[in-house]
Structures
1.
Amino acid sequence: MGQPVVHFEVIGRDPERLRSYYGDLFGWEFDTSSPVSEAVSEPMNYGFVGGNTTGDGIGIPGGVGGGADYDGHTIFYVGVPDVEAALQRAESLGGTRRMGPAQAPTGLVIGHFTDPEGHLIGVAGTA
C-alpha cells in the first residue's frame, strides 16, 4: 500500500467565519486550543475538527484556520517517513516546493509543494 492521506485543512483569511460555515454545513465542532505552526495559521486560530471519524475509523482528521495574512486554500497531507526527502522527491518529479519542512509545537513536521499542474499538496511526518 502507498502512503495514506492523514490530514486535511481549509485555510482562509477569516478562519472564524470558515469554522462557522463548515460547522453549520457538516455539523463539525472545532477545538482551537492546540498550537500549530505559524507557517499554517495564526496562533490559537486553528480549529481541529472534532468527532469527524466514525467508530470504524472512517474519516480523516482535519482543521480550519488561517488569518488575515494567509492565502486561502484547501490541502490534504500525506503521511511520509521523512518530510525533507518527500519534498526533494516531489521536486525531482517536476513539483515545486512551497513551504517547509516546518515543525509544529507538537513536533510534527510538515511541508507543502505544488504538483506539475499547480495543485497544492502537503506532506507530514516526524522527520
2.
Amino acid sequence: MNRAADVALAGVGLVVSAPALAVAAAAVKLTDGGPVLYRQQRVGKDGAGFELLKLRTMVVGAEAKGAGAAVDRGDPRITRAGRVLRRLSIDELPQLWNVIRGDMSVIGPRPTLRYQVERYSPRQRRRLEVKPGITGWAQVHGRASLPWEERIERDVWYVEHRSPWLDLRILAKTPLALFSGTYKGSTGGWTQL
C-alpha cells in the first residue's frame, strides 16, 4: 500500500474510531489509574526500531511479572477492561497514529520485538523489507492461532507477492479476522530459549 493511501486510511480510521477510542481510554484509566497508552519498542522496515502504541490492556509493569512479554488467554495481568479491548482488537487502534507517523503501514507483517528479529533466518528477515502493518496476510489467515514459523512464512509470502489486489483482499478479510483468537500458548507461538 502506498504512503498516500496509508495516511488517508489511517486518518479516516482515527476520525471514525475516535468515539470508541475515547470510551476505551476512559475505561483503561478508570480500571487502575495507570497510563492509557502502552508503548513498546518494536522492529520496523529494514530493522529500524520504533515505538509501537497500543491501549494498555494489562496491569502497569506487566512485562516484569509472570510470563514477561508473552500473553495467553486468561493471563491474570490482563485487566477487566483489557479483556474487552483485546477481544474486539480496540487496543490496536492507536497504531493508526503509527501509520500516520510513517512507522507502520495499514497492511504488512506485524511488528515484532528485537530479540525475535535477532533469531530470524535470512529468509525470515525478508519480512523486514516492508513496513510492518496493522493487518496482514498472516492476520487474516489465523493470527496467533498459527505456529510462529507459519506466521513468519505467510509474512514472507506477502512480501514476495504484494500488490494492490492482494492488499484489497487483506482489507476485505480483516473484519472477520478481528473476532478470531489472539492468543497462542504461553509465548504467543514464539519459542524462547
